Known about the structure:
The complex is a heterodimer of chains A (185) and B (799).
Chain A: H1 2-19, E1 39-46, E2 53-58, E3 69-72, E4 81-90, E5 97-98, H2 99-105, E6 110-117, E7 122-126, E8 139-144, E9 148-158, H3 167-170, E10 173-184
Antiparallel strand pairs in A: 1-2, 1-4, 2-3, 4-5, 4-8, 6-9, 7-8, 9-10
Chain B: H1 2-16, E1 23-31, E2 42-45, E3 50-53, E4 59-65, E5 68-75, E6 82-88, E7 92-93, E8 96-98, H2 102-105, E9 124-127, H3 129-133, H4 140-144, E10 150-155, E11 159-164, E12 172-176, E13 179-180, E14 201-206, E15 220-225, E16 234-244, E17 249-259, E18 264-275, E19 278-279, E20 284-285, E21 290-302, E22 306-320, H5 330-338, E23 356-372, E24 376-392, E25 405-423, E26 426-441, E27 453-468, E28 473-493, H6 494-499, H7 502-505, E29 510-514, E30 517-520, E31 523-539, E32 543-554, H8 558-562, E33 564-567, E34 572-575, E35 583-594, E36 599-624, E37 627-651, E38 656-669, E39 674-675, E40 683-692, E41 698-707, E42 718-722, E43 727-731, E44 740-752, E45 758-766, E46 790-798
Parallel strand pairs in B: 1-7, 1-8, 12-15, 34-37
Antiparallel strand pairs in B: 1-4, 2-3, 2-5, 5-6, 9-14, 10-11, 12-13, 14-15, 16-17, 16-46, 17-18, 18-21, 19-20, 21-22, 22-23, 23-24, 24-25, 25-26, 26-27, 27-28, 28-30, 28-31, 29-30, 31-32, 32-35, 33-34, 35-36, 36-37, 37-38, 38-39, 38-40, 40-41, 41-44, 42-43, 44-45, 45-46
Amino acid sequence: MRNLKFLSLVLFTGLLYTACSNDDDNTPDPVNEEEVITTLTATLTPDGGGTTITLQTRDLDGDGPNAPEVTVSGNLATGVTYNGSIVLLNETETPAENITEEVMEEAEEHQFFYTTGGGLEVTTVYVDMDSDGNPLGTEFTLTAGNPSSGTLTFTLRHEPTKPNTGLSDAGGETDIAATFNVTVE
Amino acid sequence: MRFYVLVLLLLSSVPSISQNCNYTLSGTVVDLHDGSVLVGALLIVAGTEQAVVTDVDGKFVIPGLCENTYSIQVSHPYCTTRGFSVKVSGNMTRNFQLEHHLEELNEVTLQGKAFQNKTKTSFENEISKDELERFSNGSLGDALNSLSGVSSLNTGNTVVKPLINGLHSSRVVIMNDGVRMEDQEWGAEHAPNMDINTAGNITLIKGAGALQFGGDAVGGVIIAEAPKVSVKDSLYGKTSLTGASNGRGGSLTSRLTKSFQSGWYGTVQGTVKRFGDFEAPDYMLSNTGIFERNASLRIGLNRFAYAIEAYYSLFKNEIGILRASHLGGAQDQLRAINSDRPLIITDFTYDIAEPRQDVTHHLAMLKAFKRFDGLGKVSLQYDFQRNHRLEFDIRRGDDRDKASLDLQLDTHTLMLDLHSSFSDAMEFKTGLSARYQNNFANPDTGVRRLIPDYDKYDLGIYGIVDYRLNENWLLEAGGRFDYTYMDVFKFYRTSFWESRNYDELFPEIVIEETGNQILTNPQLNFYNASATAGATYSFKDDYKLFLNYSLATRAPNPSELFSEGLHHSASRIELGDLRFNSETAHKFSSTLQRENENFGFSLNPYINLINDFIVIEPTEIQQTVRGNFQVWEYRQTNARLLGVDVDASYAFTENFRFDHQFSLVKGYDRSQKEALIDIPPVSTKNGLVYQNRDFNNVWLQLQSEYVFRQNEFPDNNFEVFIPETDTFETVDVSTPPDAYHLLNFNSSIDFSINQKSTLTVGFEVTNILNTSYRNYLNRLRYYADDLGRNFLLHLRINY
């Protein structure tokens, strides 16, 4: 009797073992990164007409090994004020997802910062604000100063301290940091 | 079969003899070597299963015997169990001798004696029941930390991974009541998923000497065993309540056991642990709370000749990860490291927000053994484990409440073991194991799978033999072979696939290409051999010398093979390598031990040479739209770990003792000719203990813990462009924190409530001086100090 119990126990575990090891031949579905930002495009339209300048950084493989392709369509003109707008896209999805809309929906938790370096003489002013009246920065104006060249960096922070006086006391996490080499002539 | 006949005969013979059955057998159980009495030895009369236990003088009385010949089984936790035949004719006195094995073999006996001997020639460290109870509100890692040679790899203070002689994660095997834990232990921030309160004692074997548990324990094996249930009618239990000032929480754990003379027993056990945000000396560690709930149920029948047991446990843990450790890119990393304080500090809360982990571990086990005359003890065990891990990051938009990582790992294991004694001097252990594992990565996370879907099959076979040459020498040798097959479905980024040249190396495994990803089906085979050989030499009564060589082979884990993407909590991109082979470790260790009441010590030097050791290290900086990230790639190298662990205890008087511990390990990368990363710094613990067993068992301990600065480390610093200052600045991820010294106080006192119940009250203060410090092996050391002062009150009732 006991032997029988023992045997049935062995059989049972054996069955369980094989029953649970059935392979299904279905291959898994791919996962498209939903939060990746592949592309930042800053469009600078001269106030009063002229050539629109486009600054773009595009990294279609996200965190993959390829570096972003950075393009600047042309040089800024001294003394001209440009109306700037920033568009963020996730191009790993088809059609591409517009991330700017998400950022605008959560305006209180986001802010763009514009930083110049290397002697570039341009000044920026925030245009759009969040519901608390603090800057968001998907839209801005940029005024080109004396002829010069250097870097212009767009930084998007998630959950920064608002209001703040700039990147140094904003805190939060960096969602985007895109640097462009820009010339004013 | 022969056994059944024997049992049947015995059973039928008892009632068939209708004589005077009022005879008594009494006597003493003594140690064969020195004649000292053995307290708590269990005597079982075969057939009637009548059981008695020897008293404090080693004496026993078995009443109600008839005029007959009885087989009496005498066992003691520290001795080899022996059978005696006694012819009863009237009231008799008979003394039994057992061979006291503890000192020679350092073995621990357990419920069902499933793991009587772990190794014979590796030195084993043990955490006893009493010591374990002091950690009832902590984790397994915290308890193990109290042993020399063990440190921990922490993520904050609630994710504590044991690190044995400098090695961790997949290199440390954890046996939970005979079940090999399969809880995604590959992750450096994945703590062991077991409740410390389920264990009766914990044994640590440094190195791969215990082949019955696997051949891949390059670091070591941690064996947690259930408390022993005695064969008698009894109902007992214990309840522990701990309150702590730091974290403003506590834990409650309770266990109740019912046992019967017939051998049947059952235990229910449960634990709840809840803490809010912990505090460093100068600030709140925001979002570091923990909420842990565990329950387990055990039912079994324990006889000398056979036993069966069923066990189920549920472990559920929610852990908050320091909010300030969640970073965007290298610029954020620089800001966080350069700041003295965490960048985010909020008010105290019990709420656990993102980033957090939510882990559930189910373990179900069924095991049985039976002793066969002339063959030995045959054990069979089946276990099932389901580990479900969710990790939540700080996310945006619709994904806000979704997990970033959702992995379910199912494991089925079947084990058959045979333990036999060829003679008094020779023992043999052998066994087979089969394991099937399925990992499912839920695609609904909207984040590419960190670990791909896979099926894994393992088959193992081992044999260990030990031979007692003479009074002084004990020899041991063993071998094991493991076969592992992995069937994986993995999506690679096309750009990564091509940058690694995989398109030329592995074109045959591509199933389909979808947009910018490639679906592949890697099928991997690993053939691993492992072995151990050793000797123990006992001399001058209380000295022993252990010599051991072990060969361990470990197949790469899924993380090492398949990682490919951004790891948020480390703010780095981690890349595995499909081409890895198994790593092979040769460990030579020796221990000189003196077991003496007045002055005892152990001295354990070792060297571990590991070929194809898998390390992760930074290789380059990668630009993304999010900013720059450091890329950490796994690679194989040849490593050398050299170290020594020292324990010593000196008794000034009967009640006053000085304890000392010292651990040193040096890790060296022999290929790159530089220090290995994450090697524990030299540390020493010194304590004064006062204990008076005659006065309510009062116990007082003052302990000093000094951790030196790690001076040997690889330079992995890198530079990042900071737009605000228009400069490149160095991100210092390498420099270890300074040395630190902690002072701890612990105490306990027993009060007896009634004959069977004892109340133990404990008071403890950790980090008495409220020292601000950072630990090199805490992954959050860049962002925040470690814990400040903590007052703990323990109440425990044994009933």
